[in-house]
From TrEMBL:
Pfam families: PilZ (PF07238). It comes from Neorhizobium phenanthreniclasticum. It comes from the Bacteria. SUPFAM superfamilies: PilZ domain-like. This is PilZ domain-containing protein.
Length: 112
């Protein structure tokens, strides 16, 4: 309950650490990255290059393991991008399927 008293937002879905690779696209730019954090409602990507999209920008993420996902940029900080999946997309089903059939939870090797 401490998070509510100091004004912090709580997350709505459990997250799992991953090492899934993909490409995030915004209009005519794209950047390859690694999905380091994944839930049914969103993901965090470690980007391999520059990517300029403001908070609220619509993006597409393409990955062999996850397929094509659509979302919105929620934050961008030090080469990492936070994306919230579009609620009317089939992202939750795609993420669930990935966890069920392919994914083994990854423990971090080095903390940031």
């Amino acid at each position: 309950m401490l998070s509510k008293t100091i004004g912090m937002k709580t997350r709505s879905a459990a997250r799992q650490k991953t090492r899934i690779y993909g490409t995030v696209k915004y209009y005519h730019q794209q950047a390859k990255g690694r999905v380091v954090d994944l839930s049914a409602t969103g993901m965090a990507l470690d980007l391999g290059g520059p990517f300029h999209a403001a908070n609220g920008s619509p993006v597409k993420i393409e990955s062999e393991e996850l397929g094509i996902l659509e979302g919105t940029v929620k934050w961008c900080h030090r080469g990492r991008l936070g994306i919230q999946f579009r609620p009317n997309s089939n992202a939750a089903a795609q993420v669930s399927s990935c966890f069920r059939f392919f994914h083994k939870e990854i423990r971090p090797v080095i903390a940031r």
